[in-house]
Sequence to fold (381 residues):
Amino acid sequence: MQKAGVVVDEVTMVSVVSAVGGLGTLNVGMWVHAFIKKNRIVMDVKLSTAIIDMYAKCGCIEKAKAVFDEMAAKDSRAWSSMIVGFAIHGYADDALTTFANMEESQVKPNDVAFLGVLLACAHAQLVSEGQKHWASLLESGRQPSMEHYSCMVDLYCRAKLFEKAYTFIKNMPIDPDPVIWRTFLVACKKNKNLEKGELAGHKLLELEPYNPENYALLSSFYATCSEWSKMSHMRKLMRDKGFKTIPGCSSIEVDGTVHEFVLGDWSHPELKEIREVLSDMLKRVSSLGHKSNVSEVLHDVSDDVKEEALCEHSERLAIAYGILKTKAPVVIRVVKNLRVCSDCHEVTKIISRVYAREIVVRDRVRFHRFVDGVCSCNDIW
Fold:
């Protein structure tokens, strides 16, 4: 479009900014934002909201907040984008404060605003606060969506209120969708609740018999509960149906280029250097007494093999590359397609401390900001 000499406007840039947010490439996003300013493109409410959303999805909530604060007028979409941004970054108090300010500004909360505030409560295990906002949603006359119900189930599950979560699901006026049952199954997996987990797993297979993710999740659930025969049965079902699991994939942007790493893939041209950093990372982490959580490797193999597999998780490869190619105070930003496992989460906390680096990891659920051995999620995810 630029080569053709066509002048871009705010409508064009909304689409461009949204695309950048989907990729999570902060450097490109900052360039696009600078392009908008340089060309004096009108920063209307829609474009400003898109930029807020983009910065939030790129892991830079501070820049999102700066754009939000500069807006002369804010509609419900702008407010809700900021609330959701705070929520996915683990800043529950900021999300709740922004929601309260939205109401004080006489802007009626939309469905996304309620979704954001419930998400914030779930991520921070604020059960009473979440119940209060759920009641407010119902009193507003709005019809809760499946996503709202899912947030409440997530809230109870994170707080380990399994019976309350199960009762909530059973009493829903609409049939629970696969996302809700998956949320419940993941919680059962974390707490090795075999009875309720099997129930959720069977519901999933009924609703989505052709979704490989359901079989993989149920298989890993059985492995976590050391039900190896049942795990093998699920693996056999997957093979018989020709299902394949999605491999863990993490990406990191360095000097404008996005580098992707996949579990067990050693094809990167700087493999030797990456291995050296990985080795140094392992030594430093082990010297502080960290013991690998081998239960995260869902195969009936020796602990040594499991520890080796954990070291090859895609986010560790991406973080190692970030340490190799950048220096502090540059933030290491990683985007992962799956949830971060508990061992990688613990290891990344240690890495942030021993290397004195800020690390931001965006997984499929939320953002984790690691600074000096502490994560913004407070170990709740």
